[in-house]
Give the backbone structure.
Amino acid sequence: MVVILKMVAFDVLAQDDFAMKYLIDVTRSLDTFEIELEWDGKLKLENEIFQFAATAPGTYQTMDIGRFVSDFRAYDKKNRLLEVEQLGVNQFRIDQPKKSVRITYKVAETFDTKVKKNPVYLMAGSSIEEDHTLINSHTMLGYFHGLQGQPIHVKLERPESWRVGTALPHRDQALVAENFDHMVDSPILAGKLTYADTILDNTRVEIYTYSANNKISSTDLLSNMSGVLDASKQFLVELPVDRYTFLYHFEPNPPGQTGAWEHSYSSEFVMPEGEFTPSRMKSIEHIASHEFFHIVTPLNIHSEIIEQFNFVSPTPSSHLWLYEGVTEWASNILLYRGGKMDLNGYLKEAWSKKIMITEKYFREDWSLQDIALRSYAEEGQKQYGNIYYKGSLVAGLLDIRLLELSEGKLGLRELILNLVEKYGKGNPVSEETFIEDIVDMTYPEIGDFFNKYVLGSEDLPYEEYLKKIGLKIVRPAKQPVSVFKAKKLTSEQGQLFDAWSQNLSLQR
Ligand SMILES: [Zn+2]
């Protein structure tokens, strides 16, 4: 998923003083971005291919952005056209790269452009309307082969009154990214936006909101968010970033798959606009909790496949159980442990509802590893959503198993924080041996757990595990599954239930 690449990785590729300078013009058309790219420095023969993204970190979706590109042109310094050849859907080859000084092209917005297959998620897409634009850079910018690690400057040609929301820093009226990955990691929302900010301990939190009919404001969202931020802080001990930007986009009838997409210092939400009711507030709060937790994983814990993201050919990591399953589990239990959600609310949201949905809508014979490794295939896309249900439930069971084996001293939260301590940013885990690592850090029995429920697709042992902490699951005829606390707990159950209900002290 989305991570700023380690600079060392680019040493071999780095070309001194090479910077890509983009101009994105959203004033000339209401459905097409007009893009111009110039660069400081000279292209070499090995930089002849200009690459658009086949996919983007954290989306597990084939996007083929080249599908949206037209009028791709390259120029020499006398403004003469150079020959260009399209090699595949996402690649353009410039015939005489050493002579070229500038390219221009157009890219259709993903929101309102019909495609036969692989529609781009809205929160990872692009849009231009009269009063705003949404820019996810992988949907319109690219890089020359060999220069993915070079800095990027972006100027946004836009109506003067527009406010610009992004986690990217500004310099001389341009937004500046360290490299292409950083650019993709930093969506931009601009237009008629409301703004609010706050400081939580040492973390500055900013909110930018586009609400088509002004129904939801950044101030509303901020007051709603403080509980999530507070509970996250309790769960994580300290927030791992010094700043964070929430970008919200609300319109009445979003033209596709809505949701939210996480980044290192921001997240982008696209959701239907409506009155700011308590139930809408709750759902926004839950998604915010999920996206915010992603700063732990994949930002701080991920494998080398995520660390060096491949924009050319989609390469899945098998540890989606961690990136999305554990994140979804954490986003709920942190609210319960932080006192923002009561026990019954938590059990309904994180257990009963998820058991019902995973059993009703998804294939039980797909393991969490299958869901990860096959996510880019069409059949895989149909099962992908289960990572938020089965993935979260498996994480919940793993938490209980760890608490049982450690006699209430270490649960999944504590294991995750130990992993952050051990690995952390810029130090990826091994795709191959990560699970063995976890077993070494915990108990041999955890190896069996992974074999059965992450790598394998054995039936999940809800009843057996929930009982360990004094919870019960019932399946009344023709009624939904229900999970609740038993009336009487043994002292062993009571002890584990108490440990399970709180953020434990860390033993390092
Ligand atoms: Zn997620």
Summary: The CA atoms of residues 301 and 423 lie 7 Å apart. The chain has 14 helices and 23 strands. The longest helix spans residues 218-236. The longest strand covers residues 32-40.
